[in-house]
Amino acid sequence: MSTTIERDPRLTVAQERFRDDVRSMLAEDRVRRAVDDVAVYRPDQEAAHLDVYRWLGARGWLAPGWPVEYGGLGLGPVESAIVTEEMALAGVPDDVHVLSVDIVGSFLLLEGTEEQRRRHLPAIARGERIATVLFTEPDCGSDLSALTTRAEPDGDGWRLYGSKIFNMKSRFGDVALCAARTTDSGVGMHGITLFLLPLRSAGVHIEPVPSMANDRFDLVVIDGVRVTRADVVGRVDDGWRSINDLLQLERTGIDFHAKARRLLDLVIRRAAQTGRLDDPAYALPLAELDARLTAGRALSWQMVQNLAEARPDPVASAMAKWYVTEQFRPILHTAMEVDGLDGALSAWDADAPGLGRLEAQYRLGPVHRLASGTSEVMLYLIATNGLGLL
Amino acid sequence: MTVTSIAPETVRSDPERTRRRAEELFDPDLSPVLRRLGQRPRGAADAATLHPDDAAARADVADMLVELGFLAAGEAGPAVADLVEVAELIGSALYQSPFLDTVTAADLLAADPRYDALRTEIAAGERTVALAWREDGRGEPHHPAPLRLDAAGRTVTGVRRFVAFAPDVDLLLVVGRAGVEDRLVLIAPDAPGVRLRRQDDIGRGDLYEVTFDAAAVAAPGSGPAGERYPQALARARIRHAAYLAGLASGAIELSAQRLRDRTAFGRPLASMQALAFRLAALAAETTAVLAFAREAAQRADRGADVRLAGAQAAFLAADVARTASAEAVHLHGASGMTEGCDAQVFYRRAAVDASWLGTPTGLRIEAARLLAAGYAAEKRD
């Protein structure tokens, strides 16, 4: 079936079996029910501590690339990508997975101390602990060199002061990876340090920031929370380098592709059900989008393969992220053509097709070109490091 | 869509090794020379002749492609995964030759064991073949033009246009609809009853109108294109997509160099974000298309049904090749239009190559049909 993910010719037999196992588990009724439940959550509800994470975690599948002693299976980037892809294709909300496993977990694996890893990774891998990311501030987003959250010396540690915004799931989180300025040298990129910040501390105030998407952003105000060297991830003042290194490493496009593919499959199925797939005016753009996602997947998997072979390509990774996320707009626009005004009906309307998923996706749409490095940041990386421009 | 096994065995490939070897031939320093080989004066039509030095250089490269073993392989032919690497480099250099057509011909001829001896000769580089499937420029290879064979199947009458390198190859492989089936017919270009006329095209290359007037069919006679035809065509499209991705990256590299070299308003063009971002986006599109072609090639070598992938990769590649080459002319300013600038060579070649194995619209229609069939099958399941 062309519209679902075929076996990747690069996968080994064991990896294919792993994908089959993960896919089978995610096709179970209990998972499908859980996914449908999320689609029709009340407006004040959002996905966080999902049972699906615990079911995956119980098998070591939430973080299969992590060493066994930290709750993984000791496998590699390919198996991690398989889980990420299958979760997204099954419609399992993945914000918590991306934040806790892919970002915070990866930072701890690469830069964390043994004590930090043992304290946090097993619980994250079991799906029992949520770790979030506190980088963006009211006055700095893509340009983290402008961040102003301060780490003021306090005895053998620091006290953190500042505000972090547009982060996700912090209301439900246990710990966050927080970027703060330890040294004010006048050079923005220098003097940033990453800390593990306990989110349930007296000095941490979290309030939701409503957005047009189902899930709300969080505003986190940090008012004098004390941290020590034991909470530093990596080296003091070296946060800029580690942020850039790791985010580039983790940027394969796999997660974005799978979300786009699930969305496009939904649209094509609607077109098939309604007869519009037989009309070239609708079928041709859909065939084009299908082609673009197939190309995006091939490129994304090449990035995974590069990671597995320890030869990451940050320029091509930026290309993968940019290319895949650029498809969301045309997919959503085509979706609204296929379903007309029915596509505008929300999950809270009884007439909404497909549990109102399309309407929810339309509202979420802009986030993909913003998250994990905006489209413009990706183009900047390609232009500078790839083409020798700018 | 059900995955159909076409080739019973998985074709062995070693794309990285193939690429390393091909890069020795398509060296970046040599590419500017290669892309100018065989250009004819504008408007020269049938009177155009190839400069002997160009002809010799072009033949040398063709010999090297054979010597490097890119045509030779096991029974199933060279691996598509290997050939996409070669094709991409050929596209980047804009090297024109019957090589890719010959590869496709060998694949098509595998439909009938009577052609096995010829395929062996092709693999050894002893025979070259040009494909002849269009009656006119609007023809789409997935719907071959009608073919008039005499009752005994010994002669052909009709016309084929846009046949590349017709006078230079050993054989023409005419593909056409005869009755209710598509057939393959081999004809020597110098056989009695065959008339060639060079077409004066925008690429100023080697395209010919071939008229057959009861032209004799070469041994071993005509054969059915069979079920292999759509898959062989799809494999050709995958290779061609890689060629077009190469063309696009050649144009992008040329443009990037221009931006680094040229100063305007007191600073290098390379420092201007509007221009840099356009090229960056094209580079990303090109890389994605090439990744698509590579993955589709691997699937083809495993015997998968690649009709949809072949059509999709080809139209995406055609789009990016045309856009990147047009952008190359634009970013060179008026000098991009001049005969001395390679940007216009990319631009003119892309106009031809983008529709070589089907117009992008024709390919989209084909892809949409296959996609809808896949979903209809899913509904039935």
From TrEMBL, chain A:
Cofactor(s) demanded: FAD
Signal peptide: none
Organism: Actinoplanes sandaracinus
Keyword annotations from UniProtKB, A to Z: FAD, Flavoprotein, Oxidoreductase
InterPro entries for this protein: Acyl-CoA_Oxase/DH_mid-dom, Acyl-CoA_Oxase/DH_mid-dom_sf, AcylCo_DH-like_C, AcylCo_DH/oxidase_C, AcylCoA_DH/ox_N, AcylCoA_DH/ox_N_sf, AcylCoA_DH/oxidase_NM_dom_sf, Mycobact_Acyl-CoA_DH
Domain (Acyl-CoA dehydrogenase/oxidase C-terminal): residue spans on this chain: 237-385
Record carries keyword Protease: no
Ranges where the Acyl-CoA dehydrogenase/oxidase N-terminal domain occurs: 14-128
Pfam annotation, one family: Acyl-CoA_dh_M
SUPFAM superfamilies documented for this protein: Acyl-CoA dehydrogenase C-terminal domain-like, Acyl-CoA dehydrogenase NM domain-like
Lineage: Bacteria, Bacillati, Actinomycetota, Actinomycetes, Micromonosporales
Name of the protein this chain belongs to: Acyl-CoA dehydrogenase family protein
Every Acyl-CoA oxidase/dehydrogenase middle domain range: 134-215
Alphabetical list of Gene3D superfamilies matching this protein: Acyl-CoA dehydrogenase/oxidase, N-terminal domain (1.10.540.10), Butyryl-CoA Dehydrogenase, subunit A, domain 2 (2.40.110.10), Butyryl-CoA Dehydrogenase, subunit A, domain 3 (1.20.140.10)
Family: Belongs to the acyl-CoA dehydrogenase family.
